[in-house]
Every structure is written in C-alpha cells, then in structure tokens.
Automatic annotation (TrEMBL):
The lineage of its organism: Bacteria, Bacillati, Actinomycetota, Actinomycetes, Streptosporangiales. This is Uncharacterized protein. Residues 277-400 are annotated as: Disordered. Residues 308-329, 337-348 have a biased composition (Low complexity). It comes from Streptomonospora mangrovi. Residues 349-367 have a biased composition (Pro residues).
Amino acid sequence: MAAIRTASASTVALLADIPSTGHLGPVRAPRLPVAGDPREGCLPLLDFTAAELAQGRKVVALYPSWRAEPAERAIGFVRAALLTDHIAGVPVELAPLPLSLVTDQLAHLAPHLPAGLVAALARELPRHVLAGAWLRTLGSFADLPTTLGRHLASYAPGTSFLAYCSPWPQVDRFHRGEPEPPPMIPDSPVGMLSAPSGHAAADIVADHLAPLLRPSQTATAPAQPLAPRYWKSHHLVEFAVFSVHPQALSRAVESVPTTPCAWCGEPVAVRRCPFCAAANTPPPRVRPRRSAAARPGTAADPAPPAPVMAVPRPRAEPAPAEPGTERAAAPPPAEPAPAASAPAAATTAPPPSPPPAPAPTAPPARAPRPVAVFHEPPASLPVAPNGRRPGHPLRAPTNN
C-alpha cells in the first residue's frame, strides 16, 4: 500500500476576468481567464500549474460557479496533461467584487496553511462578508430571489433595490428615507469596498450606502467587467463589507472544522477531497459561541444551568437493643422523608412509617382446560339396536 502523503503548501489562482481590488496591496492572486478558445485558453493555466508543481506547491483554482463550464474544462485538461491531482477547482457563488476580495485574502493565507485548508476557506470566507449591489432595475426575475411585485415595480421610475449575494441571497427594496436593515454586519471595525458600473450615480455610496452600512473605512475598487453579467443590469454599484480587525482572518481559519483525507492526507471539510476526490466523513460543523467581551454593547449570555444529579439518601438503621434484653426483629427500612420536612427531621425523629405494602404478585397461571378426544373404536365391536356403538354417545343413528 502506498504511504499517505502529508499536506503541503499551495498557491491560489482565479480563473476569471476579475481584476484585483488592491485592498491587500501587493498581495494578490494571479488572474488566469480561461474563456474563449478551449485550446488556447488552457495554456496559461497549464504553464502556471507546471511551474508551481516544480516548486512543490499545489494549486487551488477558484472560479465563479455561475460561469463554471470553461474553468472546469480547463482544470480537467491540466490534470490529464500533467498526470497530477495537485490542482483543485473550487467553485464560489459570489459576485465579481466580493470574489476578487476573497481570492486575495486566500492568496495572503496560502503560504501559511496547507492546501486542503485553503480550499475549505474558499467556502468559509464568504460567510464573513456582506456583499451585494445597488440596482436600479431587476433585469432577470429567475436569477434573483424576489417576488413578481418587486419585479414589476422595477419598471417604475425612481425605484431602486439592494440585492445581496452573501452571506445569503436576498433582495430588498431601497427606500431613501427608511431603508431596510442589512441581513448581517461583520465584526467591528468594518471596511467597505465599492465599485460603480455604468451610469450609476457616484453619490450612491456616500449618501445612501455608507449611512446604512456604517463602515469605518471606505475605498473604491475598479469596475468589474463581469458585474453586468452577474447582476443582469448595467446601472449598479457593487459593494463588499468586511471586518478589518487584525484577527478577522484568524477567526475564520479557526472556525473551519477539518479532517485529514483518507488518501492524500490533506485537511478537508467536505465529503469529497478537492484534490484526489477520495470519499471522507467531514466533521460536524460547530460554531463557538462568542462571549459578550468580544462584542461590546451586548449583554452577557447567561451561563447554562448546571446538571442536577440525584443523590441517594442513606436508609435509617434501627436503634440497638438494651443489654440484657432480646433484640427485636429489625423494622423495615423507613421511606425517605420529603424535601419539605427536611428541617423537622433534623430535630425530631421521624414517626415510624407503616410497613410497605407487599408487592402485587401475578395471579397463578390457569391450567389448560382438558379437551375431550374421541377415539374411533374398531369395526369389530357390536352395534346396539339403536344404531350406536359403545363409547360413542354422540354418534347419530344410521338409517338402514
């Protein structure tokens, strides 16, 4: 049997035309678009993967799940051409702007974590980001979780919407006076990236999104070429709200339960290993409860009640007989006193309790009722004049 290989370092690549946000400075994952001619589109990924494998690193290739066919075809071609399983494709259901942010965050963590954990974080980090877009119209009713009324209202002048793609899909109508609260706000301090596209007003972020989301830091990212395709609209403002706390990424890493793959040894958090595709049993996902000290302004969670354990009470022993007299038979053990009479039992002796009633016994089983069995006498016995044979009182007479 081959020895189980240990986890190794990795590098992250994004297989889509999604520019970097520049939030992490020089740290950014390489962008390798694979759209276009299948034969020519796979060559950049093939050369990049071969160079990384020569350096002893595995490749975690991210791609948008809403444009998965070109990326899956390119990853399959590279695995077959290099005869390796050290490249894993991970689909991510995010809009272009938050997908670019998450990719750069994974590129920052990849040199310090095993490849399997980096692939698992690609599904965990979107849960810590509030991402969406301000839309003037809802272009596609089938792609967004909205109602028919809101879809028809998008054709009215002066109507706009807030659509969220993370942490879960949601569409709210945007009211300038009383906007609806967002589904989630990351841990403080909060930063926000925005990217206007088309003819969207530049003051949407400063006048409406910033007062609603209340970020402590704001920055503008370049417009994403694939944003109109994802949101089905040409007039939009993408935004991504995330925590800029120094320990934010460390908390995300600690919240991912993993188990070593049974074949390649990489830590995995899903049923199928993204590298060797071996079947595994993922550990149960348990999120630790955050204390009130980590979130100022919230009341402390009450401590769970301690488990109540039943303590058996000692039985009362009979008093010893006086010397010179015969010892009487020991009385039956006294029943434990109720909780309400516990103080009185400490000062005065409890009155003798009546002997316990004998346990009910089951009635004796009835003997089976005897069944009369009639045996046919031999044919040589004489027949009485009335037509009956001896020993057959119930036999009917026969007519000759």
